[in-house]
Amino acid sequence: MPETRTPKRIQRKRTRGWKRPDNCVIVDRTSKYGNPWAVTLDPGRGWRVHPAGDKRLLSPDIVGWWANRADAAAQAVSLYSSWFRNQPELVELACEELPGKDLACPCPLPESVWEPDHCHAAFLIDFVRELCDA
């Protein structure tokens, strides 16, 4: 029986010398799989979730404000999940292109295995494993 490998999320770096590892797909906003919602800090107000200037969204409004980055990132992933599931062509492409691949995004990695991974790449890995590999 062939060895099965669990895909993982890799933090994409924009530093000199960083190279995309083999068997890895970049899923940041430069790609078709990028999250059209951004999480940014507005000093004095908190963390906000808002469209990232992406033409794929219809509403230019701020989604909301959160006291910490983790909660705002979780909301951005939830929005991405809903949006992605309503993109049948993109879902089909993901099922063709992403099974067995590591995914790279610039979102920070969790600090421990016990911390949730609030990144759309983590959602994509789970989605592909559960719906596409079935």
Plain-language structure description:
This protein has 134 residues and is an alpha/beta fold. It is 30% helix and 19% strand. It has 3 helices and 6 strands; from the N terminus they run βββββααβα. The strands form 2 sheets. Strands 1-6-2 form a 3-stranded parallel β-sheet, with helices on one face. The chain has a 3-stranded antiparallel β-sheet with strand order 3-4-5, with helices on one face. The chain is globular, with a radius of gyration of 15 Å. The two termini are 18 Å apart. 22% of the residues are buried.
Task: Briefly say what this structure is.
The chain is an alpha/beta fold and 134 residues long.
What is the N-to-C order of secondary-structure elements (H for helix, E for strand)? EEEEEHHEH
Span from first to last CA? 18 Å
Helix content: 25-40%
Number of helices: 3
Strand content: 15-25%
Spatial strand sequence of the major β-sheet: 1-6-2
- The averaged pLDDT comes out at 87
Q: pLDDT under 50 segments (min length 5)?
A: none
Overall geometric form: globular
What's the number of structural domains?
1
Structural class: alpha/beta
The biggest sheet, with number of strands, parallel, antiparallel or mixed sense and barrel status, is: 3 strands, parallel
DSSP strand tally = 6
